[in-house]
Design goal:
Order of helices and strands: HEEHEEEEEE
Distance between the termini: 76 Å
Mean pLDDT: 83
Radius of gyration: 25 Å
Number of domains: 1
Strand content: 25-35%
Number of helices: 2
Oligomer: single chain
Shape: elongated
Helix content: 40-55%
Largest sheet: 4 strands, mixed
Low-confidence stretches: none
Strand order of the largest sheet: 1-7-8-5
Structural class: alpha+beta
Number of strands: 8
């Protein structure tokens, strides 16, 4: 084999290694993006499911009692349903960092949201109309992929209890 042929072979291998590295880098980046997007969709579905189930119960006759299983996002630390217009015992939340964040936001009166949840210690919240939790607060920590909500139509609102 000539020296020229050996040099071409070296360049071929270097080029192949560079192409393989670029493909691996782009593939890993694409998988990361898909996982991030999937997490966002999962969170949006969680919010939508809670809203629709509570609205569905509110549209029923007064006194109607229903129980629904709602699939929770992966890595959900805690979900709390609160009545921001009433006093509540935030000590139901065991994690002190999450308890402090939720109680601080709820007590500040800046937000009128009544559902708070934490995924990987990142707090999010939203408002559900015509909903009040039993005893002014209902929390579930580490629900394991699902929460079970018992809902009772009280006429002017739906009262929820987490099972």
């Amino acid at each position: 084999m000539s020296k020229r042929g050996q040099m071409e072979q070296v360049f071929f291998y270097i080029f192949a290694i560079i192409v393989t590295a670029v493909i691996l880098f782009l593939g890993i980046k694409a998988v990361g993006y898909l996982l991030e997007t999937g997490s966002g969709v999962e969170t949006a579905n969680f919010k939508l499911d809670i809203n629709s189930q509570i609205k569905k119960n509110f549209d029923l006759n007064t006194g109607s009692l229903t129980q629904e299983k709602i699939y929770a996002p992966a890595n959900l630390d805690v979900v709390c349903f609160i009545d921001p217009s009433e006093d509540m015992d935030f000590n139901l939340i065991k994690d002190p960092a999450i308890r402090q964040k939720i109680s601080g936001l709820a007590k500040s009166g800046v937000k009128d949201e009544n559902v708070y949840f934490s995924i990987k210690k990142q707090l999010d919240s939203f408002k559900v109309d015509n909903m009040k939790p039993k005893n002014n607060i209902q929390c579930k920590e580490n629900p394991g992929g699902q929460i079970i909500i018992q809902m009772e139509n009280k006429g002017s609102y739906t009262e929820i209890t987490l099972k």
